[in-house]
Every structure is written in C-alpha cells, then in structure tokens.
Design goal:
469 residues; alpha/beta; eight-stranded mixed beta sheet; 18 strands; 21% strand; globular
Length: 469
C-alpha cells in the first residue's frame, strides 16, 4: 500500500472533534449570567489563563469576591484541545529565551521550573485526575543537519541546569523506535504530559469549590469605565461591575483593540489513533512515555495518551488570510492526510492502525513567540496573551503576572524584561497575510535545504520577528 491510500484508510471514519473533549463524562455547562452583579475581580475567559488567574487569586485572598465569565464552556478552546505538553519553558523553548532575554534567562529557567513544580502540586492538592506524568520530552533529528542544533541545545540546557541526555541514533531508537531517527535529546524533567481537558475541568471544579462564581455561555461584549465602581462588563443578560478585571481571552476577537496589533491566529492540527495493542506498543518501545517533537522548523509533536493512543500533531501552522477564526477551519482534510502520511513514515511498524479523532485549534501567535503582559484602563485591567503554542504551563505563570500587575506592588516577575516589554506588532491586513504566507513558505524551504534560512528569514531573525506555532 502506498502512503496515500494507507493514510486515507487510516483516517476513514475519524471523529471531527478534539479527542480530549469527546468524553461521556464532560461536565455540564454552568448557568449563564442572568442579572447584574458586582465583583472585586472579574476574570474574562475560561481557558488556562483565566482558570489559573481565578484559582491563584483565591489562594492569595480567601475572602476575595471573584467571578469568571466564559463565552462558551471552560476549556473548549486551545486549552482543552492541545497536545498536553506542559513545559517548564516560559519562553517557547530555551533557544528563543536565550536569543530574546539573554540577561535574565537563568531567572526565567528557574521561575519556569518552579511554575511546573507548582502545577504538579496543585494537581495533587486539588485531586485533579489529568494524567500528569513528568516524563520529560525528547527532541529527535530526522535529517543530518538537525544533529548539530540538538547538540548545541543540549549544551545550553545543561549550562542552565536542565537534566538533559544526548542520545545517538541507537539510544534514541531504544527509547522510541522509528527508522527515521538519527539522534536526539531527552530533557528528563522539564516537561510533563497531561490530559488538557481534564486539567481545565479540574481547575474549573477547584475554582467553583473555592467560591469563584463561574458563568458559562456568557460572552463579554464590551468593557467600559464605570468610574469609582471600576469597570463595567456587558454580557447578553447582565452586566458585571468589577473593581479589577483579568483578561484571558486567547486569540479571540480582542476586547482590547490594541491586542489586534500583536496577535494572529495560527491554526494547528492533530490526530489521535485508536489505543495501541500490547504488540503494537512493543513494536515501537516508548516505555518511558516521553513527549516527542522532531527538530525541523516545521515540527511534529507526539505522545501517548493514558490509554496508549498516539496523539500526533503539528507540522503545518496555518494562517487563513484575513486572520478570521471560523469553526469550519477546525477541520483541514489536506492537513490531516499529510499528518497521517508522515505518521506511517515515522512508524511503519504501525501499518493498519486507525485514527479516531482529527481536529484543529487556534494558537495565539505573537512575533516573539512568548506571552506578553500589560495593564489598561488605569491599571484596573491586566492581560496575558501570545503564548504561541507553548501555553499549557506558561499560562499559570501568566496568571501570576496578571495578579501581580493588578496588585500594584513590584515583584520579581513584574521586574522581568519579558514582562515589561512587548513583541513587535504585525503589519495590518492585507500586508499581514502576505508577510505571514511568505514566512511560512521560507520556513518550509529551509527544512528542504538542510536548515539554511533564506534572506527573508535572516532579515526577520535580525529584527526579532517571526511566525511559529
Ligand atoms: C492544536 C493545539 C495544540 C497545542 N499544543 C500545545 C502543547 O502541547 N503544549 C503547550 O504548552 N501549548 C499547546 N498549545 C497552546 C495552548 O493550548 C495555549 O497556549 C493555551 O491553552 C492558551 O490558554 P488561554 O487560556 O490563554 O486561551 P484559550 O484556551 O484560547 O482560552 C480563551 C478563552 O476565552 C474565552 N473568551 C474569548 N473571548 C471571550 C469573551 N469576549 N467573553 C468571554 N469569554 C471569552 C474563549 O471562549 C476561551 O475559552 C496548543 C494549542 C493548539 C490549538
């Protein structure tokens, strides 16, 4: 069987919904806001940014009056449909952090490791059954030009105190057996695998049990200054007067106009297989269950689920011209076919395995690839956005920054250059679409040309600009 019919057969009958959200025990929606109310803190958005902000605000002040307003249901968006790689990195990887914040990278690494430890502690303390496994993450080379980069990255990681092992082809294939592997690295501690929807649902439960008032199917339509009362948030059936507001709305139509300059929606797609049988799992190894990503610019990420399915995603970060977010863009049959073909190239031993789920989601991409933070409305509103595909762990750090900023007292976090500066803005449309599509084409070309970056990518690198997932 050639790759294409094999991929088509494996995808036949796939459910077009995120695997993680397709659960019989998914929680019922909480009631929508139906009348006017007041709050000390209103959190807008029930993804990880919003949920962590509400929970950490409760930890900081047990008496605080907190409401959380979610336009649909908590965790339905990026937070409940991602790869579930919960990384310690706050900077979209160490190399990006070193390039952008060389003077404070040691601090950022330390704060990131502490953040990951604290996520693990909250998961335990709140009894959140989200399959949190601190397996670490492997990066694998599938072309010779990637090996030097991996060795450099391992040296940098070691210098910054990370537990990293450099693996030759035999050693990496002993961990996970793909004939495409030429070598790899394994950061053994700095990433956990988890079930993102169950983390979102668990955080939502912990918030509700601690007295946070959660309203779902409650989109905030407008934010307005309400004088001494703080800010007024308008929703379809009632307004909230809040002294302070935390904005964690990801990439969706920003309530704060200025965010439009800094954020673009990049679509990322993933597949999940049926559970592997014992012999199928035996044919690839993977006894240490690490998350894996390959080392190309267009990279796949993959991992085992709790019931031994393989989640296989990434490669193609798609920007739809005009930057619209539309439900129909969650499905991309061409991308799914390509991902399925790549899967069987990586694991020919698994011929005959079928995919059960195929979906996409929106990543809030900014030009520096890691989140930015700001205050607005006379320091009564704070936001964090722009995690660019590595927000599962970093959103908790972002939530702490939001609360520090609203608290008004300087902290180690708010003194960071990463927190005090913003990315360069994207140009307006239609130039934005042209620039992003040209960048995507150049990135694909670099992978075909042994990693060599063309003049366009080198110019963007010099300016500190880029497009990534
Ligand atoms: C396919 C995919 C794979 C990914 N894989 C990984 C991974 O493996 N590891 C990793 O670290 N990151 C990954 N990411 C990125 C990660 O999921 C995000 O960085 C993170 O979930 C962002 O969380 P958030 O709360 O900021 O945004 P979101 O999860 O997008 O949540 C925003 C919420 O705000 C709500 N909202 C928006 N506007 C309003 C409004 N006006 N009123 C009320 N509510 C509103 C939305 O309904 C939504 O629920 C992936 C993303 C995708 C799409």
């Amino acid at each position: 069987m050639t790759a294409q019919p094999q991929a088509a057969a494996a995808l036949a009958g796939c459910r077009p919904v995120p695997y993680w959200l397709d659960r019989p025990d998914a929680p019922q929606a909480m009631p929508a806001l139906a009348e006017g109310t007041r709050a000390g803190l209103a959190v807008i958005g029930g993804g990880f940014t919003g949920l962590w902000t509400a929970l950490l605000a409760r930890e900081r002040d047990p008496a605080a009056d907190i409401v959380l307003l979610e336009g649909k249901t908590a965790g339905w968006a990026a937070s409940g449909r991602n790869g579930g790689f919960c990384s310690a990195s706050l900077t979209h990887g160490l190399a990006n952090g070193i390039a952008r914040f060389p003077a404070e990278i040691a601090t950022l690494v330390r704060l990131g490791q502490a953040n990951l430890d604290e996520i693990g502690s909250t998961v335990d303390a709140c009894g959140i059954d989200c399959g949190f496994e601190r397996t670490g993450e492997m990066a694998v080379a599938t072309a010779p030009w990637q090996l030097a980069g991996l060795a450099e990255d391992a040296a940098a990681a070691r210098k910054h105190g990370e537990d990293v092992v450099l693996l030759d082809a035999a050693a990496v294939r002993d961990e996970l057996d793909s004939p495409t592997y030429l070598g790899g690295t394994w950061r053994t501690r700095s990433c956990a695998m988890l079930d993102p929807a169950r983390l979102a649902w668990g955080l939502r439960r912990a918030c509700a049990e601690s007295g946070v008032r959660i309203y779902e199917n409650t989109p905030v339509r407008e934010i307005a200054d309400a004088g001494p009362a703080g800010l007024r948030l308008t929703t379809p059936h009632g307004s909230v007067h809040a002294a302070r507001v935390a904005l964690g709305t990801g990439c969706f139509l920003p309530l704060l106009r200025r965010l439009r300059h800094y954020l673009v929606p990049a679509y990322d797609y993933a597949l999940v297989t049926e559970p592997l049988s014992g012999p199928q799992l035996g044919s690839i190894g993977w006894r240490n269950r690490q998350g894996v990503a390959d080392a190309a610019n267009q990279f796949h990420y993959y991992r085992l689920t709790g019931d031994n399915r393989i989640l296989w995603g990434g490669y193609d970060a798609v920007y739809y011209n005009g930057g619209r977010i539309r439900p129909e863009q969650d499905q991309s049959p061409e991308t799914f076919a390509m991902l399925a073909e790549h899967f069987f190239e990586a694991f020919p031993q698994l011929a005959g395995l079928r995919f059960t789920h195929a979906w996409g989601g929106v990543i809030d991409t900014c030009s520096r690839f890691c989140a930015f933070y700001c205050l607005a409305y006379g320091k009564r509103l704070a936001y964090a956005a722009g995690y660019t595909g590595l927000g599962v762990g970093a959103t908790r750090f972002g939530a702490n920054v939001i609360l520090d900023l609203l608290g008004g007292e300087p902290t180690e976090r708010t003194s960071l250059q990463m927190v005090r500066t913003k990315p360069l803005p994207f140009p307006p449309e239609p130039l934005r679409s042209g620039v992003i599509q040209m960048t995507r084409a150049s990135i694909a070309k670099a992978d075909r040309n042994e990693g060599r970056r063309d003049i366009w990518l080198r110019t963007l690198d010099r300016l500190g600009l880029g497009f990534d997932s």
